Structures are given as C-alpha cells and as structure tokens.
C-alpha cells in the first residue's frame, strides 16, 4: 500500500560495516548522518573514535552533515567534536532538513548518501525525497527512551520477511585483501 516508503534501500550492522571508499567510487560525495544510535548510543557524546571516523571520511573526500531531531544543546557539541556541518530540530521524516543539508553541502540527490537507524523517521524521510540511504542497526538499543523502543516493535513488524540488501563486513574484508 505504501510501496517502498517503509523499506530501507540497504541495511548495515553499523557504520563500521559500510565501505565508504566504495561509496565514494560509486559517485557519492557527501554523507548525511543521523546521530543518536547511528553514530553513538542515544544521547552519548562524540568520542575520539567518532572524530577519527569523520577524519577518515574527509580523507576519502566526503563532506558531511548531521541532521538530528534533537536540539542545539545536544547536536552542536557533537558536531564541533567531529568537525561537521549540522542541522538541529530536523523533524524527520520531514524532507525539509534533508534538502537544507544538501544545500549546505552543495550536493544533490545523485551524490548524497544518508545513514540513519530509524525506519519511521530516517528512512521514511530519505524515501520521501528519493535520497539514497543505508539503515544501520541501533548502536545500543538499551539506551533508547521508551517511545523509541515502541517504534522498534513497529519497525520489526514492518520489515518482517522483507529481503533487503545487507552490507556485511565480509564485503569490506574482501576489498582490503
Ligand atoms: Mg537515531
């Protein structure tokens, strides 16, 4: 009834399983990230590892932007630590912040990749706009407030039995060999 709106284009266990060099080679030039449970556990600060991850992305050639439904006081310190563009109060699945992020990045729907952990906000917003995206498993499901835990139940029901391309570490390893 809703077509593919609630089906992620690709899935990955985590951001570490995504081969960003291959994504760059396939034409992507910017990555837009959700923060909570995509990059770190819900409400956790950016660590030195997170900062290194963003350095790695920049060394490949990527520009980055964070879009979060969370507020300035949560998002700005995080963005400062990883040295990324950011947008707060994004109201995903609204398409507005995805569009605004592309404007900041100077990229378009062909060369911008979105990475997020929630079906009903992150994936739905990207789908509505037609933006390429990867849905990652939540970093720490236990860190989530109850209303998000409830949405996870709905996600599981909506994705039950669906065949979705899952990026695996094996692909990454194969490339490194
Ligand atoms: Mg999230």
CATH level-3 fold name: Rossmann fold
Tally the structural domains. 1
Task: Average the pLDDT over all residues and give the rounded result.
Answer: 94
Distance between the termini: 43 Å
* Strand composition percent: 15-25%
- By DSSP (H or I, 4+ residues per run), the number of helices equals 7
Q: How much helicity do the residues have?
A: 40-55%
What's the architecture in CATH terms? 3-Layer(aba) Sandwich
Question: Compute the gyration radius: what is it?
Answer: 15 Å
Shape: globular
* Structural class by helix and strand composition: alpha/beta
Question: Low-confidence runs (pLDDT<50, min 5 residues)?
Answer: none
Biggest sheet descriptor: 7 strands, parallel
Order of helices and strands, N to C? EHEHEHEHEHEHEH
Q: Give the full name of the CATH homologous superfamily.
A: HAD superfamily/HAD-like
Count of beta strands: 7
The level 1 CATH classification is Alpha Beta
Strand order of the largest sheet: 4-3-2-5-6-1-7
């Amino acid at each position: 009834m809703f077509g593919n709106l609630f089906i992620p284009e690709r899935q990955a266990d985590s951001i570490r399983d995504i081969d960003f060099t291959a994504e760059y080679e396939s034409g992507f030039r910017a990555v837009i990230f959700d923060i909570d449970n995509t990059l770190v556990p819900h409400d956790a600060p950016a660590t030195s590892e997170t900062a290194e991850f963003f350095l790695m992305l920049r060394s490949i050639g990527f520009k980055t932007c964070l879009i979060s439904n969370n507020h300035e006081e949560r998002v700005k310190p995080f963005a400062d630590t990883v040295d990324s563009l950011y947008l707060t109060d994004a109201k995903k699945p609204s398409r507005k912040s995805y569009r605004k992020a592309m404007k900041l990045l100077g990229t378009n729907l062909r060369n911008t990749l979105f990475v997020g952990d929630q079906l009903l906000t992150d994936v739905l917003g990207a789908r509505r706009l037609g933006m390429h995206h990867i849905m990652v498993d939540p970093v720490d499901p236990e860190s989530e407030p109850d209303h998000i835990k409830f949405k996870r139940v709905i996600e599981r029901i909506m994705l039950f039995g669906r065949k979705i391309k899952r990026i695996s570490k094996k692909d990454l390893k194969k490339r490194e060999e």
